[in-house]
Amino acid sequence: MIQAERIFPIPQIIRESLIDLYCLGALKRGAKASKANEDCLIRLYLGKDTEARPSKVFSPRNFRLHQDQMERLGLDLTLFAEAMGQGLAIFHWIAGTGGHDIEFVLELDNMTPDSMLRPKTRGLNFQKLLIHIWCLDFNQVRRITFDLVGVEMCVEAFFANDPYYPRPGSAELWTIFSYAYLTTTEKALQKSENLELMAKEDTEKIRTQHLAQIFLKSVEQPDIPHSLPDLSAPRPTKTLFQIAEERRAQLQGGSNQRNGGSQQQPFLDLSSKNVVNVKINPDGTIQEGQQQRDSSSSPSSSDNNYNTPLSPIWDTLFLSTSLSAAHFTLSVLTMHQYAEALVFGPLLRSTLFTAFPFLTLTIHLVHGHLFPRSITDAYESASLATQSLLYALRQTVLLVIANIAGCYLIYLCNDRGYYAVMKDAPNVGIVWVCCVIEMGVVGAVLGVLGPAAWAQWKGYELF
Question: CB 3.0-4.6 Å disulfide test: which of 166, 224, 246, 450 passes with 403?
Answer without folding.
Answer: 450
